[in-house]
Every structure is written in structure tokens, then in C-alpha cells.
Specification:
The relative contact order is 0.32. Strands 2, 4, 5, 6, 9, 10 and 11 form a 7-stranded mixed sheet that branches. A 4-stranded antiparallel sheet has the order 1-3-8-7, with no helix packed on it. Helix content is about 0%, strand content about 45%. The chain is mainly beta and about 130 residues long. A hairpin with a 6-residue loop joins strand 5 (about 45-50) and strand 6. The protein is built from no helices and 11 strands. The chain has strands at about 5, 10, 20-25, 35-40, 45-50, 60, 70-75, 80-85, 90-100, 115-120, 120-125.
């Protein structure tokens, strides 16, 4: 069965770090663009960053630049989101998602409609 499972969320103080994992089964992540998205209470879901198939080039939202890093471990079929210098406004449910039409866009995009398969999400709470 196709499955994306996020893990690594939790409670962290402002300025702290977390690493989220997106483990895939039933699909090979290297075949697809993979995005990380988040949805905070009362807000729309927004793209955070994404990684392209094969070449691992990346696209970052302004909010993530300088603080967040996305990476892929093909041997583990897992994509990671390293989050540093966390702020309270980073509090959200974080989702990973796969773009099943990577040839449609040479670069991955931070729009949720471009992604076809989603994980269940993991909660990140940044609070003192």
C-alpha cells in the first residue's frame, strides 16, 4: 500500500531544533518531487520547502530560508526536514507529500494542489 509516515514532531522551546522524517512505502521517493507543508491553527496549509526528484535541488519558502533544510536518503526511502531556530509561529501540523507529475514542473513547487499523496502529519509545537 502507498504510505507516507511523518515522525519526529513534538514540543520544543523557541530557538530549538527538530528533525522530521517522512518514510515511504509502496513508492520510491526518488521518483517524485517531495514537499513539506504545514498547517497552523486557523490558517491555510502552506508550503515550507520541497526537494526535486533525482537531482535533489530544493525550493524554500521565505519563512524557511536560513533555518530549515530538506534532504533525502534514497537508501532509506526517507525525506527529512531539519528545523533549526524554531519560532512559535512554526507551530503547526507538518505534512510530507509526493508530486506524482514531476515532469510537469522542472522545479518542485510549494502549492499543495501540485501534490497527490499525503502523509497523516506530525505535530510541531514551539513554546516556552
Amino acid at each position: 500500500q502507498l504510505q507516507l509516515v511523518e515522525s519526529g514532531g513534538g514540543l520544543v522551546q523557541p530557538g530549538g531544533s527538530l528533525r522530521l522524517s517522512c518514510a515511504a512505502s509502496g513508492l520510491t521517493l526518488d521518483y517524485y518531487h517531495i514537499g513539506w507543508f504545514r498547517q497552523a491553527p486557523g490558517k491555510e496549509r502552506e508550503g515550507v520547502l520541497c526537494i526535486n526528484r533525482r537531482d535533489d535541488s530544493t525550493n524554500y519558502a521565505d519563512s524557511a530560508k536560513g533555518r530549515f533544510t530538506i534532504s533525502r536518503d534514497n537508501a532509506k526511502n526517507t525525506v527529512y526536514l531539519q528545523m533549526n531556530s524554531l519560532k512559535p509561529e512554526d507551530t503547526a501540523i507538518y505534512y510530507c507529500a509526493a508530486d506524482f507529475s514531476p515532469l510537469l514542473h522542472p522545479m518542485c513547487v510549494l502549492m499543495n494542489i501540485s501534490y497527490h499523496f499525503w502523509g497523516q502529519g506530525t505535530q510541531v509545537t514551539v513554546s516556552s
